[in-house]
Amino acid sequence: MACGTSISATSCSSDPTTWWPGGATTPRGLRPCSRARPGSRPDCARMPTTGRDPRYAAAKQTPARRGAAGRTGGTSMTDRHGPGRRHLARAAALLPLAALAPRAARAQGRIPDGPVTIIVPYTPGTGPDILGRLIAAPLGSRFGQPVVVDNRPGASGNIGTQFVARAAPDGRTLMLQPNTFIMNPSLFRQVPYDPIDSFVPIVQLSTGDLVMVVNPDVPARNAKELADLARAKPGELDYGSPGVGTPQHLAMALFGLTANVTMNHVPYRGAAPSLQDLIGKRLVAMVLPVHTALPLAQAGQIRLLALCGDKRSDVAPDVPTLAESGFPGAQADLWFGLFGPAGLPAEFVARANADLNAWLAEPRTRDALLAQGMKPAGGPPEALGDLAKRDLARWAEVIKRGNISAD
């Protein structure tokens, strides 16, 4: 099947899973006061010292009686009638400050009032969706506001991406994307956004390793032998992918261009059917996420040839990279980033970036991401912006040379 076949490309993600983040904590202001001792005032019930309730102030100012014999203190106006007018006036004046304290704290980081929505332009259970739900709870805890995930799939991610491009830049609408949205402008004649100018980068969340594999009947033990086989049988070897323009497709296309060989691309509607045909030996080769490929290789259902990234994988250290196999320049990987609509305030971007970098640095975050075949990334917003610009130019050239189109 030609690479230009019109088909709805799906996410470059891992298989659907029901894994959910563990250890998420409720924001302190929402915790029940279960640790309070009888008669004590727990932390979550305390009012700011600059805005105490005048009734509480009155209770503190009025001394206890000693039977009918008289008062413990003097005979001042405060002793006889509760707090004096000065105290009441001061407490009344400070009450508005207490009410404004939470808003003032949020204003320092420019966190909007109300729920924050992370748009994921892919279906539930895909890699971007899993990652979005991983960050929602810790980000909501740090923001002090609910953070929810909204799946808006369709048109290879263009529908949800367009929604964010048109959203108000108030911090209430964000977008979690794999690097596919950077490739779409080169794959489609027209997309309803500019991948650079329509968005503000916030933070690179994670990366994922890709690996080139073959079915075990293929007489190729490494990437060079696969290239030699394709060269000996031009146009006879079929490789699959989850869809036109997915990172898996483009990684194989880049390998073919680098090795100067021709293989047939067979696009599928998702990863599962393409993987089934690879295991069933109807396909010769594919590119898969490492964490998907590893258990299949251990079971003898596929063979790992080479890592597509620039470094070896921690979970498959014996598998060489494509560069080590003689194909420098054929590197390809997955990355996931958080973006907002253009015009997003710099204060919000800085706050969200700092909060997510802190979360990414936690050991349990690394464990959670590794369980999904991802590695934590992090860094300043500018690093994600530079990565997006480099990938836009690089993949545009690959797509042009390979005559690849998703229209």
UniProtKB/TrEMBL annotation:
Residues 16-27 have a biased composition (Low complexity). Residues 1-85 are annotated as: Disordered. InterPro entries: BUG, Bug_dom1. Residues 1-15 have a biased composition (Polar residues). Pfam families: TctC. Belongs to the UPF0065 (bug) family. This is Tripartite tricarboxylate transporter substrate binding protein. It comes from Muricoccus nepalensis.
